[in-house]
Amino acid sequence: FSHPGRMSGLLHRLADGEVTRLDGLGSEDELVLFNSRTVIFREQHTSHDRKRPDADLEILLYVAFLNESLVAFSKGIADLALADQSRLTSLDTGRLRRDFLAFQTLYCHLEASRRARGHTLFLEFATSLQLASHYGEVQAELDRLAELENQLAEERKSRAERIMEAV
Fold first, then answer.
1. Cα 113-19-65 angle, rounded to 5 deg
2. Left (φ > 0), alpha (ψ -120 to 50) or beta: where does 87 sit?
3. pLDDT tens-digit map of 25-56
4. In the 8-state DSSP scheme, what is residue 124?
5. More confident residue, 61 or 34
6. What percent of the chain is predicted at pLDDT more than 90?
7. Could you say which DSSP state residue 110 is in?
8. 92 versus 37: which is more confidently predicted?
9. How far does Cα 163 stand from its chain's mean position?
10. For the sheet containing 29-34, what is the strand order?
11. pLDDT of residue 134
12. Mapped to the 3 state alphabet, what secondary structure does 37-84 carry?
């Protein structure tokens, strides 16, 4: 599939026609958003360019890391929400909230590069993958999970108070 036409045909067939090209980021690169989740990044290098570090690829990997981290947090929240709610304690959600706070402060940066091309590439990927909305969804899910945890704690407290009054 080294011929560009064959590669494009394969991508369109696999994605049921939902292939989006990311243009405006350079004439040498081929950037394709595939199935709204997978990005294909193919760059043509000359032999002397291989020696320098590839900043574009680093930005691509960073955006992929952010996206997959948000997916993992959302899955963790769903697993907790579907678990036995009578056993939900502050330790269960505390670990997830602590991990998300560490992710926010250590790994999630709004500016991945100071170079204009790197900044544009990061914005294009982030916009195409809707990272801002996914981030907001995970934050809202964590808030709702904390509310559920508080509600369950209040129910346990009122149940214990009713038992104590009955005794």
1. 35
2. alpha
3. 554 445 555 555 556 655 555 455 455 557 78
4. H
5. 61
6. 14
7. S
8. 92
9. 45
10. 19-21, 29-34, 38-43
11. 92
12. CEEEEEECCCHHHHHCCCHHHHHHHHHHHHHHHHHHHHHHHHHHHHCC
Alpha helix (H) residue ranges in the chain: 4-14, 55-82, 90-102, 116-128, 131-166
Alpha-carbon distance of 115 to 26, in angstroms, equals: 14
For residue 132, which of 66, 80, 79 has the smallest C-alpha distance? 66
Token output for 108: 């999630």
Is the dihedral angle over the CA atoms 12, 18, 19, 23 positive or is it negative? positive
Report the pLDDT averaged over residues 1-22: 65
Q: Are 32 and 59 in contact, with CB atoms under 8 Å apart? A: no
Q: Which of 90, 52, 70, 57 is nearest to 141 (CA)?
A: 70
Q: What is the pLDDT of residue 111?
A: 76
76 close to 60: Cβ distance less than 8 angstroms: no
Q: What is the pLDDT of residue 1?
A: 46
Rounded to an integer, what distance in angstroms lies between the CA atom of residue 12 and that of residue 34? 9
Distance CA 141, CA 83 (A): 15
Q: Higher model confidence: residue 102 or residue 50?
A: 102
